[in-house]
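User
Take a look at the entry that follows and flag anything odd:
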Amino acid sequence: MPDRREDKRPPGVHTGHRKRMREEFLRTGAAGMEDHRLLELLLFYAIPQGDVNPLAHRLVDHFGSLTGVLHATYDQLVGVPGVGHNTATLLQLVPAVAARYMERSASMDGQIVNVWQLKELLEPYFFGQRDELAYLVCMDGKSKVLATRKLGQGVVDTVQIVTRKVLEAALACNASQVVLAHNHVSGVAVPSHADVDTTLRLKRLLAEADISLTDHLIFAGGDMVSLAQSGLLYR
């Protein structure tokens, strides 16, 4: 059933508006559309009738941007007047589907020759996440990806990278080299002192098993920082 909490307008108001917006999107794409208009178009499919433009504005104003809306939790969304179960579920579904699409689209069948290939490979795993996550990319001696293993998940800013899990994952894949990656949900990709200390400790441990830790990547808000490129991996 469609949401019934949304404002309804009398029939005839904005006649043909939805059709015109759909046609505009199909003709020109999203590039020229403002956040609230894109969101309005999306809301058509949760709320089949009525004027959803006020709700689109309300959501963007409340969360600051379209990105903020799509990053909001279910409980935060239904706390906005006019947002019901269908609308909140649809808005939660959009980033989840986008993340799955990005993950499936990333193809790394050949060698990893630069850090931007690693960014393409790993970014989908962190897209839209509200908790900190840690992953390990396992590669052979020719830099071909063998597997990408999840190491752990924590609440905001408290993910723990357990040494034993890193070593077990690398050995299980028979990896010759690995890349560690985790995200900062604060939105700032600058490595902390704890990040650097953990990296250097893991590097020494893996070296004892003849496994090279070639980089530690930190993701935040679409940005990525490489500890290797920053010179922090070689202290």
